[in-house]
Amino acid sequence: MKKHQTLTTHSLFYQQYLLYSFLYENLRKRTLRPDYFLIQGLPSTMAVTSHPLIRLIKLLLILTLVGGLGMASLVGYVWYCAQERSVQPAPATIVLGAAAWGDNPSPVFKERIRHAVNLYQAGTTQKLIFTGGTLRADMASEGEVGARWAIKQGVAAKDIAYEKTSRDTWYNLKNAHVLLQQEQIHSVILVSDYFHLARAGIMARDLGLTVQLSPTPSSKFNSYSKADKLKLYLKESYLIIGHFARKLIEPDFYQAELRPIQVPR
């Protein structure tokens, strides 16, 4: 039932704020009793705000407000990056993998590929790089499936490359970056679903790339309700925080996998 659904992040911050406000006011009223300081053996001139618990609750209130504002700002950034926009010509486009169903791209992945092919055919980009591995050795990788599907749509094989070992967005980009370095390409267009591009853009810039974001206009997620889209933005916001944390704790974070990037036969 709806009333039992999990609270969103914003409502959770709000609930924490109300709780700390209640505790603060309750404690403040208690300490304002005329005999309070005498009972505690404290000077009667001591300010109420000097009570350790009040200082602690004030600190918690401030942290909650700052955390809520920070998360709201991050969600706003994810939303901003999700908006459709025109892009300037770039030498290469990276298509982030979604899923492959056998030898065919999933509906989500197919729309990403379709958008990249449209950019190529419009002359906006000269090379398409497909990314994504596979969970099983006997199945085609997302990168391989994407490359083959693009060739069927009229993209020249010489203008396509793919990698087939990555299993998340960061390694999608790290592996693609190996090829870009080999061809001395520093400017790219990123293609993915709208909610995914803020995080992908941050990661690509971490690798030193100049990035333009191009969300898939026919994304299967466009039909989501506003509430469901907000959940996607919140999830991506947490994943962005996780990305920054990962940079701090993994010493080899920026080392490329250096797996071979393939060209379709």
From TrEMBL:
The keyword Transcription does not apply. One of its GO terms (cellular component) is plasma membrane. It comes from the Bacteria. InterPro entries: Cell_Envelope_Assoc (IPR051599), DUF218 (IPR003848), Rossmann-like_a/b/a_fold (IPR014729). Coiled coil: none annotated. Keywords: Membrane, Transmembrane, Transmembrane helix. Residues 92-223 form the DUF218 domain. The chain crosses the membrane at residues 59-80. PANTHER family: DUF218 DOMAIN-CONTAINING PROTEIN, INNER MEMBRANE PROTEIN, PROBABLE PERMEASE. This is YdcF family protein. It comes from Thiopseudomonas alkaliphila.
